[in-house]
Amino acid sequence: MKEDNQQPTKQPFKTAEKLLFIVAGVFVIFAIIAYGVMQYVMATSDKPIFEQKTHYNLTAEGRKGSEIFRHAACTECHRAMRGGTNMGNDLDGIGSKHSEQWIERFLKDPENTYGDKTMDHGAAPKQAAYVAKMSDQDRHLMAVYLSELISDQGSASSPVPPKGESPFIDSMIKTWAPKAWKEKYTDIRDKKPSNQGEK
User: Fold this and answer.
1) Which residues, at least 6 apart from 53, have a Cβ–Cβ distance to it below 8 Å?
2) Please, what is the end-to-end C-alpha distance for the chain in angstroms?
3) Which residues touch 101 (CB under 8 Å, ≥6 apart)?
4) φ, ψ of residue 142 in degrees (nearest 5)
5) pLDDT digits (tens, 9 = 90+) for 153-178
6) How many CB atoms lie within 10 A of CB 140?
């Protein structure tokens, strides 16, 4: 009996397969073009793509605290003044949540101030245990700096939601909130934002 040594012939692509490859190719080309345009706009425009909702106006003490913050390598975990990493908490806007005194207490005794265990701040061998061992002066200057990182109302880091009407929130209130609540409670969106924080 003769053995068949013929190789199987390759089947041509079906119409649906060809169409799938064409659509995927167009999508990839479109994505590359869109990415290139975005990079070009970001590189040539003075105006940021997204509105900045955090700001800072550092005092002389705040500038010194900023230097201490950076030399202490805090930016290896934290983001502040739109620089650093997001491994830890983003500190832009922290001055709208906590007072300078609260921040200073946290830097010195984080877990008692926070009221719970913390990931990296606290006693050794935690990574940021060295912050509690800094001099009182350095911790104070760092607290001043952090307290001057302010977020505007409506920022993700602000304790107060955006001002003005929100069709979604308004419809939810209208649907679910009893009328008596309007007399008893104030809409937090109408409150003036405060950066007093916790004392």
Assistant:
1) 93, 151, 152, 154, 155, 156, 157, 158
2) 96
3) 143, 199
4) -65, -40
5) 778 777 777 766 777 777 887 788 88
6) 20
CA distance 73 to 105: 20
Residue 70 sits in which domain range?
41-199
Task: Confirm whether 76 is domain-assigned.
Answer: yes
Mean pLDDT of 81-102: 91
- What number of residues does the chain have? 199
Residue 139, domain member (yes or no): yes
Burial status of residue 19 (CB atoms within 10 A of its CB: 0-12, 13-18, 19 or more): exposed
Q: Taking the mean position of all CA atoms in its chain, how far away is CA 99?
A: 20
CATH of residue 160's domain is 1.10.760.10
Asked if residue 141 lies in contact with residue 147, where contact means CB atoms within 8 angstroms, the answer is no
Give every CB contact of residue 100 below 8 A, 6+ residues apart in sequence. Answer: 143, 144, 146, 147
**How is 148-187 classified by DSSP, letter by letter?**
TEEE-TTSTT-SSPPSS--HHHHHHHHHHS-HHHHHH---
The DSSP line for 58-97 is --HHHHHHHHHHHHTTGGGT-EETTEE-SSS-B-TTGGGT
pLDDT score of 183: 79
Q: 3-class DSSP state for residue 194?
A: coil
